[in-house]
# Entry
Amino acid sequence: MPASLALTILLAAQPPSPSAQPPRFEDTVEVERILVDVRVVDGRGRPIEGLVAADFRVRIDDEDVGIESVQWVSGTRPYSSGLDPRQAAGARAQAAPPGRLIVFLFQKDLSPSRVTGLVRMQKEAAKLLDTLTPGDRIAVLSFDSHLKLWADFTDDHDRLRRVVERSVLFQGHPAYAESPFPSLAAGFDRRAARRAGSIEKGLRVVAEALEPLPGAKSLVLFGWGFGRFSRLGVQMEPDYEPASRALGRARVSVFCLDVTNADYHSLELGLQTVAHDTGGFYSRTHLFTRPALDRLKGALAGHYVVAVERPSRRKGSHEIRVDLVDRKGTVMAKRSYADAPFD
# Structure
C-alpha cells in the first residue's frame, strides 16, 4: 500500500553570463507516481545491491506496469530517506532526516511463555543499538493494555539502552521529551494511544504519527501475536485493515520478532500478516535468536525505492506485487496500496 507521490520538477533558466541575469522562470509538472520500498536479500539475509529497473517486475491487480526508476538507498547514507537540507531547499521540499528512522515496539505480556522471551529480546534490542550508524534515530514504544511512548526519535544510545532494558518493563508511566524534527511525538495522539485497547489500534496510532515524516521507516515489533479465535481458526480483527492502510501511507515496514517460547502458536498469524503486508518479515526467536537479528540487520542495511506510474483504475485498494526477473533473492515489499481514503 505504498503512498503516491506528486513529483515537482522545477525548470529554471540559467544565466548565459555573469553580467546578464535574465528573469527566472519556474514551471511545475505534476506526475502521479507510486513509490514502493523494496528490500531484496540473499539466502543468508544479506542485502543484494546493484539491481536496476530491468531486474524487477511490478504488477498491479495482476497487470504489469512500467517501472520509471529504481534507486538504492543505503542505510549508511547520511540522508538515507531522500533530499538533504540543501537539495530540499532548492526543490522547496521538506528535508529528510539524516540516517534511518527505526521504531522499537514491545508487546508486553507477563505470562510465562512470553515474558522470558520478552526479557531476552529486550537485551538483544539494547545490543542492536551498538550496530547502528551515527545518524540513525530510534523511538521506543510499548503496548500492554494500551500504547505507550517511552522515547521520541533520538540517537542518544545510552538513554535508549536504559529505556529498553529497564523502563519498558519496570516502569508504569513513561516520561518523554519531544525531539526536534524528525519527531514521532509531534504527531503522537496521546488520547488515541490511551484508548488503543488492541495492538491493531496501537499500530494505527504509531503509523499516523509517522506519516508526516519523509521517507521510509522501519518498525521492529518484539511481540507475541494478535488476532481473534473463531470456529474457522484465528482471523484478523476488523481494526487490522485500517492499521495496515495507515502503515502503508506512512511507508512503514514491520519486522516481527516473535518472543513466544513455542515452535508454533495460533496468534503468530497476526505477526506474519502485518509483516507480509508491509514489506517486512516474521521470525521466531526462542531457539535461533542470532539468525533472526542478523536477518533484521540485513533488511535494515538498505532498500530500493521503485517508482511506477499510477495506472488509470478505479479508486480504492489495489494489489501490488514485486518480483525479480532472472535473479535469485527474496523480495520484501508492500502487498497493496490505496488511492482513496477509507477512514
